[in-house]
Structures are given as structure tokens and as C-alpha cells.
Write a structure and sequence with these properties.
The protein is mostly beta strands and about 270 residues long. Helices cover about 10% and strands about 30% of the residues. A hairpin with a 3-residue loop joins strand 12 and strand 13.
């Protein structure tokens, strides 16, 4: 299947003011809110999230606390100066507006920011999100005013067509716990554009990576097929609660990856 050309895409973007990057995560301490709620965030008992420590090794280093006026999300580096996240983490949807004072802090451990922070230089999403906030349109990118990815590394994106039962990992910054946390699960269901799983979720985790793994200790005794996988390859963007005891996210299709590549190529 061939990627669409960038010229054929209808995209939305805003350029924001560039300032000197702060030394640490702006508003991270005591910030108890999150991006606009998309259903109830679901902790699917038992809560098996575990703290990521240290956060200076990849992929934790490339997993980003994303704060903005009135909320927070998670993102992940996909180039030296670009991170991917959920669209509702940068724009409130049809009839809404772009978020302001967007700050990216990779590898934050709840106390220290080993790589400092960068301000957003521009925010990008599909016009499909700004006119129709359907779940499959909930993807976006943030261009930063400094090249954090050169020191943190960045994730690979792929349209992995994995079967139900394939192992997955999520790493994110939930509001109910300090620092970065991870969980392991497997694909419970999938459509062409969405993935469903039981990774536990709380506010702040939207926009975080769902990446595939074939490490045998990552899925416990869950039923799963074993397939050889490239390491730390992101196959989806965490969105929130889907109902029916499942959380879900946007799947990386050729169109979504092509948009990410285009946004990454911008100055």
C-alpha cells in the first residue's frame, strides 16, 4: 500500500511564540488536571502499572511529559525536534482552539528533568480533527524550539499488522502518580484505525506510545502469539477509555505516518 503524497493531505497547524526553554517541567508539580476528558479514564483491576526508573535510558528518555495551560498529556519523540501525541492534547476539537504554553519535558522522573524542557514552536494536527473529533482523527505532532531528540533518541513508527494477542507496552505520565509509569498488556481487539487493550489509564496518559514487544516477560502468562518484532516500534497513540472494560488508541496507518513525516520535515 502506497503512502499518500503530503500535498494531498489537509492539515491544520499553528505557529506559537518561541521563548527560552525552561529548565524543568512548567507546572508539573501539583498539576492535577489533564487534557479534556474523553470518557472515564479506566484502571482495569488490578492496576499493574510499574514505575520506570531510571528515565535516562531509551525509550524512557524519549517519552515526554507535555504540559500546557490547563492540562497535561504525554508525547514521544519521533525526530530531533518533533514529538507525536494525541490531537486533543494540542487542540480542543471542532469549534475549539489550540492549547497554549505547550512545554515538553522528556525523561521526567517526578523530581528532576535530566534533559531540561523545550517550548513548542508549532502545533500540528489533521483538519479532520478540527472539524470532526472522531477517535481515529486523534493524532498530532509538536515541533519544538530545541533538538531534544539528539540526546533522548526517538521512537520508530510502523504500521505493524499484528494479530489480536500480540504483546504491547505503554509508557506515560499519569496525574495520579509522580514520574513515568509503564504497563504491559496485549491487543484485545483492533480495527483498521484503532487498537483496543487493557493498559491502565489515568489523566495525563493521553498521547503516549503503544509499542510492540516480543520480550517474553512483558505479557506474563497472557495468551498471545509470538512474532519477531523490531524493538520499540510504536504502533499506536493512547487515547483513553473505550467502554466495555477496554482502553484504546489511534493506530499508525500509512496516512498517519505520512502526516508525522511531513510535520517532522518542517522547520
Amino acid at each position: 500500500m502506497r503512502m499518500k503524497s503530503w500535498a494531498a493531505m489537509i492539515l491544520a497547524a499553528v505557529v506559537v511564540g518561541s521563548t527560552v526553554p525552561p529548565a524543568g517541567p512548567v507546572g508539573a508539580t501539583g498539576l492535577g488536571s489533564s487534557a479534556p476528558t474523553l470518557g472515564t479514564n479506566a484502571i482495569i483491576s488490578p492496576d499493574d502499572r510499574f514505575q520506570v526508573s531510571p528515565t535516562t535510558s531509551f525509550p524512557a528518555s524519549a517519552t515526554v511529559l507535555l504540559t500546557f495551560t490547563g492540562g497535561r498529556c504525554t508525547g514521544f519523540m519521533i525526530s530531533p525536534d518533533t514529538l507525536a501525541t494525541a490531537a486533543h492534547c494540542v487542540h480542543s476539537g471542532p469549534g475549539g482552539s489550540w492549547h497554549t504554553n505547550v512545554v515538553a519535558t522528556p525523561g521526567f522522573d517526578g523530581v528532576t528533568a535530566p534533559y531540561g524542557s523545550c517550548m513548542a514552536k508549532s502545533l500540528h494536527t489533521s483538519s479532520s480533527w478540527t472539524t470532526n473529533d472522531a477517535p481515529e482523527n486523534d493524532y498530532a505532532a509538536v515541533k519544538l524550539n530545541c533538538p531534544l531528540g539528539n540526546v533522548t533518541g526517538w521512537y520508530k513508527l510502523d504500521t505493524l499488522q499484528l494479530p489480536v494477542g500480540a504483546c504491547t507496552i505503554n509508557q506515560a505520565y499519569p496525574v495520579d502518580r509522580p514520574g513515568q509509569w509503564a504497563s504491559k498488556d496485549y491487543i484485545r481487539n483492533a480495527t483498521d484505525r484503532l487498537l483496543y487493550y487493557q493498559h491502565d489509564s489515568n489523566g495525563g496518559q493521553a498521547g503516549s506510545p503503544i509499542f510492540a514487544t516480543d520480550e517474553p516477560d512483558r505479557c506474563g502468562t497472557y495468551p498471545k502469539p509470538r512474532v519477531p518484532l523490531p524493538p520499540r516500534t510504536v504502533m499506536g497513540i493512547f487515547r483513553g477509555y473505550a467502554g466495555n472494560n477496554l482502553n484504546y488508541g489511534v493506530r499508525f496507518t500509512y496516512d498517519v505516518i505520512s502526516s508525522m513525516q511531513y510535520w517532522s520535515s518542517l522547520p
